Amino acid sequence: MSTLVRNIGLRMGSGIAGIAGLLLLLFTACSKDDASSPIRSIQAIPAMDTLRGFIGENTLLTNSRTWYIDGWVYIANEAVLSIEPGTVLKVLKNDQKNIDGGLIITRGAKIIAPGTQYAPIIMTCNDTVITYHAVKMAIVLLGKSPVKAPLSVITGFGGLNGSLAYGGQLPDDSSGLLQHVKIIYPYILHKQIARQDSLRAGVFPMGTGSKTIIKNITLRQVTPDIQIKLR
After folding, report:
1. Is the model's pTM score more than 0.85?
2. DSSP letter at 29?
């Protein structure tokens, strides 16, 4: 398996290593001649195209392939998830009639998703043709900015035992950048919508600070007679 890591503005694919697990090894580089040189930020590119569980290292999703999200993927340990413009993310259905998955950026972690007008970042599901009973497909940002309660929690996400906290005492906290992101979600039976809780499809900032940038977010529901095929 080829080890592939990315420096700031630099992709390297020369190393060969047998590495198991979701993420390739993360390396840091600094100058041997000058100990005071800043450590360069190195990002790991996942070896497999399906993301699941927790990501605790700086990670890059390239636009050279389609990435699949299996359930809720938690960006933790103050890691940064970077997504290249033009990248397509597809949330896998957990059974034949439900979708329950997406990205959760926990407190201290960040997402950097700088899509552009002509190369937006797209989140959709792997099958937009069928009609679903319930859809939870989102990017959730949990920040450290003050909220009504000193520290609030959210629950009900798959793969998590317990709750996730958000809020704090940092009004200028940053959970990252979301720009030109399109979320295309499938059709839901009308009789099922009233039974579903408030979290459906979209971007949900909770306790995010003033330095978080969210702009040009588009939500679109696919109707039963329209099929969208992405790569």
Report:
1. no
2. B
